[in-house]
Design brief:
- With 235 residues, the protein is an alpha/beta fold.
- It is built from eight helices and eight strands; from the N terminus they run ααβαβαβαβαβααβββ.
- It has a single domain, classed as Rossmann fold.
- An eight-stranded mixed sheet has the order 3-2-1-4-5-8-6-7.
- Helix 2 packs across helix 3, helix 5 packs parallel to helix 6 and helix 6 packs across helix 8.
- The longest helix has 17 residues.
């Protein structure tokens, strides 16, 4: 299964097994639905999507890709989890979403095929699930047009992130299935910023994302100690 791709077969299998639950708002993917308006609003504030050609890397069941298409973008969502893509395609048909398409292809393969083709590239909650995140960042830089924007979100690597993102989210609060994340694959903002600079992406903005388990409320803040987002622009 995609043995030559920058992908972990165990990770693909894990998300494929859950594919039928992507659009169940009470499922394991509930946190993604809850944070999606925050992600979308932040992207829109920095790179208005109307009329733009947008690529969503690691799109899964299409939660963000579908939302960006509804903002007037022409969106391509890519992933290597076949079942998740089928769910995304079915949802687009059932919901009548215009301007979104999906392909089973890696970021690196698409970069070789369609360099400098997209106004906006998003890669959200995906880098911590691949063997070589720097390779994905390089592919993002290749895929975006000069002057275009690339957005990332991932999880910091420190004791607080381990406590909140793994112990808290997976074992105490059961927000996510146990085993969703592996601490060693978490990425410090300084590391991701380094990958971006090496790929010719200029760091523009950094935001943190926080969660209150009592109110079940998410919000963006300046605290990047656990979940964080980076906005970059191609030179």
């Amino acid at each position: 299964m995609h043995t030559n791709e920058n992908a972990d077969p165990a990770e693909l299998a894990k998300f494929s097994d859950l594919a039928h639950r992507w659009w169940d708002l009470d499922s394991e993917f509930r946190p993604l639905h809850q944070i999606n308006p925050l992600r979308l609003g932040w992207i829109e504030s920095l790179a208005p999507l109307q009329g733009k050609r947008v690529l969503d890397i690691g799109c899964g069941g299409g939660i963000l890709a579908d939302a960006m298409a509804r903002q007037g973008a022409q969106v391509l969502g890519i992933d290597l989890a076949s079942k998740a893509l089928k769910v995304a395609q079915l949802h687009a048909l059932e919901a009548g979403t215009q301007g979104v398409a999906y392909r089973e292809v890696s970021a690196e393969a698409l970069a070789a095929e369609q360099p400098a083709s997209f106004d906006v590239v998003t890669c959200m909650e995906m880098l911590e699930h691949v063997p070589d995140p720097s390779s994905v960042v390089r592919a993002c830089a290749t895929l975006v047009k000069p002057g275009g924007h690339v957005f990332f979100s991932t999880i910091n690597r420190n004791a607080k992130a381990f406590l909140f993102a793994i112990v808290g989210a997976e074992y105490v609060l059961s927000l996510l299935p146990r085993g969703t994340h592996e601490y060693a694959k978490f990425i410090k903002p300084s590391e991701l910023a380094g990958y971006c600079r090496s790929a010719g992406l200029n760091l523009q903005h950094t935001r943190g994302m926080e969660y209150n388990p009592l109110s079940q409320h998410y919000w963006l803040s300046a605290d990047t100690s656990v979940n964080y987002l980076l906005a970059t622009q191609k030179t």
